[in-house]
Amino acid sequence: MAVDWRFVLTGAKRVIDSRPMYAQVAVTDDCNLACAYCDEYAPGAPIVALETLKRRVDRLDELGVQVYDFLGGEPLLHPDLAALVRHAKSKRRGSNLATVITNGFLLTEDNVRALGEAGLDFMQVSVDSLAPTPQSDKSLKSVLPRLRMLAQKAKFTVEVQTVLNEETLRDYEAFRAAMAGLPFAFGFSVMHGKGGRIAIQGEKFLRVLEKYGVFEGVNFYGEHLKEMLRGDFSRPWKCLAGFKFLYVNAQGGVQWCAQQRGAVYPLETMTFAQLRANAVHKPCEAGCALGCVRMVSHTLGEPLKSLGASVALAVGMSARPPAAR
Fold it and tell me: How many CB atoms sit inside 10 A of residue 242's CB?
């Protein structure tokens, strides 16, 4: 497993140095689905060439990145995704993490095996509901056979994640019950709107949060999330996007995150001075519901407050068996 002491010690250095730790890398903007709440895809968009993506990973590694999320669009549309994962895992003697975030529709025994052999650490599968809805086709009914195959064949850890909103809330208890036999971690992110701002509120969502938590790694901002679900956006925090967290779009530009696209820096020429310049409070912080950005920002920006959760997460990742075991 990639979470070893070298990974932990390097991660501790990221608290005080000027290097990024986490990068999301879009391998294509194309997607096989068209979920109504998603604005991170462009139907028919080109696949980014493997050699181009390898150069981006090389540059991110030079900057100091330890954790890679490969995403889209839909990343499984990329025919060389396993080769890209293998390239990322060749860095730092494998003391890093590689994740693929997918809707699961294109999973096959062949690509699951190839990704496992390439060294993939995690796969996050987005499944929103029991059956397709007007908001999303990402339903358990559509992908359950593929999830069962994944449970048998995967050599990496799998997490199923749901976007919590009005539609998915109605059947959330039944949804969790229907997946109870699968050896996966389960969680949800809260639906956001334009700019990443939280798009749901109310006590009914709070009850789900209190019962299940959010998703592993970001539960330590649970109190803040509870406040936002009540409409209170006053608690201060500092977003480290563009500094410790990088979002690399399909064109090779570094954005603060998937939702904030106004500040874009060419990855190839990005400097540590530019990284440090992004270590500032951002106007979009109030109401931000982007769990990936918050995980990095809270872990590295508030290390004492989040130390227990960070250690538990690291220990859990290193000890958790693959889905196939």
Answer: 27
Residue 302: the pLDDT is: 83
Residues 6+ positions from 195 with CB-CB distance below 8 Å: 259, 260, 284
Per the structure, how many domains does the chain have? 1
In terms of Cβ atoms closer than 10 Å to its own Cβ (0-12, 13-18, 19+), residue 138 is: buried
- Please say if the pLDDT value at position 199 is more than 70: yes
Give CA–CA dist 85/94, Å, rounded: 11
* Torsion angle, alpha carbons of 63, 68, 70, 72, to 10: -70
Alpha-carbon distance values, 65 to 23, 242, 249, 296, 314 (Å) = 7, 12, 16, 12, 16
Q: Strand, helix or coil at 124?
A: strand
Instruction: Place 324 in a pLDDT band, splitting at 50, 70 and 90.
Output: very low
Place of tokens 């599968």: 125
Residue 270 falls inside a structural domain: yes
This model's pTM is above 0.85:
yes
- Its domain, for residue 229, covers 5-319
Please report the sign of the dihedral spanned by the C-alpha atoms of residue 205, residue 288, residue 294, residue 147.
positive
Gap between the Cα atoms of 139 and 160, Å rounded: 11
When pLDDT is cut at 50, 70 and 90, the band that residue 174 belongs to is very high
- Per-residue pLDDT band for 48 (boundaries 50, 70, 90) equals very high
With respect to residue 325, please indicate whether it lies within any of the assigned structural domains. Answer: no
